[in-house]
Amino acid sequence: MAVLKVIEVLSNSEKSWEDATAKAVKQASKSVKNIRSVYVQDQSAIVKDGEVTEYRVNLKLTFEVK
Question: For 26-65, what is each residue's pLDDT tens digit?
Fold first, then answer.
């Protein structure tokens, strides 16, 4: 039986929500091993002068505890 843990991670990107998600997983994997899945809980964006300038995601990362 595997024991899994869920942590909440926030990330941002100037490109897209997908890029923000990929950046979060890449950064988290430097210290959290055995990441199994990611659930995008919330998405938001910053708008300046009528243009989206930053994409933000709130994620839940699930990983196996060894």
Answer: 999 999 999 999 999 999 999 999 999 999 999 999 999 9
What's the predicted TM-score (pTM) here?
0.89
Burial (CB count within 10 angstroms: exposed 0-12, middle 13-18, buried 19+), residue 55: buried
CA dist 25 and 39 (Å) reads: 11
Q: List own/partner pairs for 14-18 with CB under 8 A and 24 or more apart.
A: 14/53, 14/54, 14/55, 15/55, 16/55, 17/43, 17/55, 17/57
Tell me the CATH number of domain 3-65, given options 3.30.1660.10, 3.40.50.1000, 3.30.420.10, 3.30.420.40.
3.30.1660.10
